[in-house]
Amino acid sequence: MPTSAIGSCDPSPRPALLTTPPPALGRGFTLIELLVVLVILGVLSTTVALSVAPDPQRQVKLETQRLALVLEAAMLEAQAGRRQLAWSADAEAYSFWEAERSDLRERLWKPLTEDERFGRRRFGAGLRLVSVEVDGQSLPPGALLAFQRGDPPLFRIALAGPGGQTHSDQLIELRGTPTGRVDIRTVGNP
Questions:
Q1: Which residue, among 18, 141, 121, has the nearest Cα to 70 in the 3D structure?
Q2: What's the CATH number for 56-188?
């Protein structure tokens, strides 16, 4: 049966279609791809470095919050009548003291050295004690700030950060309130 087709009939053999892909050539990375990877690595390493590096302002804030919480705990123990506690400090460190039970009219105070919460501790984050006032009266360095049953003492503890002042040239104050709380305030340079 006769057939018809459009096109040319070329008696020469046609090359066969490739059914397999050509062998892969050694393809490398382009310059753009390498630059993108380097930028991503740079951003990630910067993020990690900033999150791991200590932030002095954050450390000062954490240390003052820790001191405020420990002072509140000492006031609560004294208010509950568990034991009479006192706090003292010099420029570099602070300690808690406990009143010994005795028949003497004057209390004998012993330092709490074995107590994990109230043991002697250096001011962290480069903080230094500037001054302590109790009921408006200045307390000399090393004198005791006593916590006992009854109304909590109204005190003001002024601290300075590394380099003389905190990073914003301000002092940090811890103030005892009539409710037994300790407020933290940042005040201007006196």
A1: 121
A2: 3.55.40.10
